[in-house]
Design a protein that fits this description.
By secondary structure, the chain is an alpha/beta fold. It is built from nine helices and 14 strands. The protein is globular and about 45 Å long. It binds (5S)-5-amino-3-OXO-hexanoic acid (KMH) and zinc ion. The site of (5S)-5-amino-3-OXO-hexanoic acid has 12 residues, from β6.
């Protein structure tokens, strides 16, 4: 089995310090969380950025500052920027950051309810727009799928050659309104993607660690972090993203799965080494 790639989703766009004081907003907080997560075993940082007061932003200059600061501290880490941004942002606003030509970025493969009145909108034309922009900027996509229909759409766009063949999926499961993250859901999605593709799981809330365990056992990769889950165990807030990464490393040890370094992750995902530096 390939070594395990751990992605740390360190801040997201929706959680706040009121939810967990460890959620980073400022550049120095972002660097602290990224470095601790990397030292704990994460090789990819899934990156959203905030203004100092916590307001989510897709401002390209803010991204540039945060990426430069993280890269200065941990030069070989893989940065995966979010093109999902925050709920309600336009697709143009969400994707301006691709002009920085990051090594990786997300491509959200369908719409999903996000609880209450919120809907995370990704129309088919939005998805095609982002896929083209990723290709123009030579950015590797992580295909975020919140349910099985999103995988079906990817497979259709693959047949039309709008998405390239070298795919890395992320199953984001347990969003209020999206597909749940039970064992049966994991197997359904894992068995629905081409067997040449790689995949990672991102379980929301209580699904985070059980899904991580399933992926570790079955050759997948894992995303954890405060974007997805604020707790290290029931009712106990995580003190940092690194604490969640540590939980994954402990599970991997028990399952005899080694952890990939950043360059090993580049090889597994087919990323060009040294790009974006
Ligand atoms: N903030 C969510 C609405 C992504 O990073 O691509 C969307 C999101 C997905 O986080
Ligand atoms: Zn995200």
């Amino acid at each position: 089995m390939e070594k395990l790639i751990i992605t740390a989703a360190i801040c997201g766009a929706e959680v706040t310090k009121d939810d967990n004081p460890a959620v980073p907003y400022t550049i120095s907080e972002m660097v602290r969380e990224a470095v601790l997560a990397y030292n704990a075993g994460a090789s990819i940082i899934h990156l959203h950025v905030r203004e100092d007061d916590g307001t989510p932003t897709q401002n390209i200059n803010r991204y540039k500052q945060v990426i430069n600061a993280i890269k200065e501290a941990i030069p070989d880490v893989i940065i995966q920027v979010s093109t999902g941004g925050a709920l309600g942002m336009s697709i143009e606003e969400r994707t301006d950051v691709l002009n920085l030509k990051p090594e990786m970025a997300t491509l959200d493969c369908g719409s999903v309810n996000f609880g209450g009145d919120e809907v995370f909108i990704n129309t088919e034309n939005d998805i095609i727009y982002v896929a083209k922009k990723l290709q123009e900027n030579n950015v590797r996509a992580e295909l975020e799928c919140f349910e099985k229909g999103h995988i079906d759409l990817v497979l259709r766009l693959l047949r039309k050659k709008i998405i390239d063949i070298n795919q890395h999926f992320s199953f984001v499961l347990g969003v209020n309104g999206g597909m749940s993250g039970e064992e049966r859901d994991f197997f359904f999605l894992k068995d629905s993607i081409p067997n040449t593709a790689t995949y990672s799981v991102a379980g929301i809330g209580r699904f985070e660690l059980p899904l991580a365990k399933l992926a570790i056992k079955h050759g997948g990769h894992v995303r954890v972090g405060l974007e997805d889950n604020l707790y290290v165990s029931k009712g106990v807030l995580a003190k940092s993203n690194a604490e969640l990464v540590n939980c994954v490393v402990e599970i991997a040890k028990k399952e005899n799965r080694e952890i990939a370094s950043a360059n090993e992750a580049r090889r597994i995902l087919g990323l060009m080494e040294g790009k974006n530096e």
